[in-house]
């Protein structure tokens, strides 16, 4: 038998090729106290361009993008109209869904994720438009077959124009304008977190950009693949990212703690950030919070609660395959939520 060995650059395996993305997230809520009934957000390469919600009743552009919007007023006008018109549409839709499913109360969430991806090396373009309701895939548009379950088939060709032609054209303009800050490198703060003395130790990195990074535990210099649980990279409210990896310490003796460390690696950055498994550096909500490994910025004194609603996208490599709501809260406990904890997170939000 002959075996053909395919060799790939190590970095291409650890950090997949970058694709540019233009994402629009729209969210309607019902039954969530002290929380906007509607929110909208636009992101270019995971960097927030603008935001609106039913409380502020207007579209706000981030500082880095204000000159672009001033020079291209048709873009700002589009976002203002989208924000205003979708508030009424989403409220009517979520009310209709509650009636359809015989839901008289409780917390309910309707979300839409739309936009496009563009590979500036191959020129490949992919558009998408998906809806979710209460954490389940509700409806999605196949832009190649031009099919989805909709009472308005005439809307399909309009969607094809937006997601295959208009949005990719806008994305290329956004990337050209924003290269200076989209191509920056921000290193994170890396901390060790633990809820109780016997619980797993979490290595948590936050504040890094871009998201071409990795975080892992080592023993005696070798990466661990057992007794560890890695959470996908998650976005922060400021356009940076966070990620974490848990280490089960139940079978680790006190003498062996010094053999373990957590390593943060970023594509294009020579030096790794390394923090030793040491009781004196673990931040807890049952004892002292001592110190963290810093990259130059102060450690965040707030945690972002993420409600992630996973979608069954045909392309399993797409983005995070999640929708997200970010709620900035005081560092009252050391909890953060991924798609695994969306119910717990939602309950936490409603209690605040």
Automatic annotation (TrEMBL):
The keyword Acetylation does not apply. One of its GO terms (cellular component) is external side of plasma membrane. It comes from the Eukaryota. Residues 188-262 form the Ig-like domain. Keywords: Glycoprotein. GO terms for biological process: immune response. Belongs to the MHC class I family. This is Ig-like domain-containing protein.
């Amino acid at each position: 038998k002959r075996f053909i060995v395919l060799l790939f650059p190590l970095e291409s395996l650890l950090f997949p090729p970058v694709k540019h993305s233009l994402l629009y997230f729209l969210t309607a809520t019902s039954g969530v106290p002290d929380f906007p009934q509607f929110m909208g957000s636009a992101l270019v390469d995971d960097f927030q361009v603008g935001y609106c919600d039913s409380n502020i009743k207007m579209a706000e552009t981030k500082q880095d993008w204000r000159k672009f919007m001033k020079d291209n007023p048709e873009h700002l006008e589009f976002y203002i109209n989208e924000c205003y018109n979708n508030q009424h549409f989403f409220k009517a839709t979520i009310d209709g869904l509650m009636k359809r499913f015989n839901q008289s109360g409780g917390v309910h969430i309707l979300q839409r994720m739309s936009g496009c991806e563009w590979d500036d090396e191959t020129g490949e373009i992919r558009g998408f438009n998906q809806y979710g309701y209460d954490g389940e895939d509700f409806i999605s548009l196949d832009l190649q077959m031009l099919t989805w379950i909709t009472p308005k088939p005439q809307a399909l060709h309009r969607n094809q124009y937006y997601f295959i032609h208009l949005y990719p054209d806008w994305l290329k303009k956004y990337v050209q304008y924003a290269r200076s800050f989209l191509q920056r490198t921000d290193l994170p703060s890396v901390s060790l977190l633990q809820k109780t003395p016997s619980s797993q130790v979490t290595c948590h990195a936050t504040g890094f950009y871009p998201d071409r990074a990795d975080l892992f535990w080592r023993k005696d210099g070798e990466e661990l693949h057992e007794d560890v649980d890695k959470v996908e990279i998650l976005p922060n409210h400021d356009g940076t990212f966070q990620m974490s990896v848990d280490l089960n310490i139940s079978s680790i003796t006190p003498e062996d703690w010094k053999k373990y460390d957590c390593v943060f690696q970023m594509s294009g950055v020579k030096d790794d950030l390394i923090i030793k498994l040491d009781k004196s550096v673990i931040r807890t909500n049952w004892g002292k919070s001592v110190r963290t490994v810093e990259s130059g910025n102060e450690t965040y004194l707030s945690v972002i609660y993420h409600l992630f609603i996973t979608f069954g996208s045909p392309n399993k490599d797409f983005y995070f395959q999640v929708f997200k709501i970010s709620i900035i809260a005081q560092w009252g406990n050391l909890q953060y939520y991924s798609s695994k904890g969306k119910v717990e997170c939602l309950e936490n939000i409603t209690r605040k």
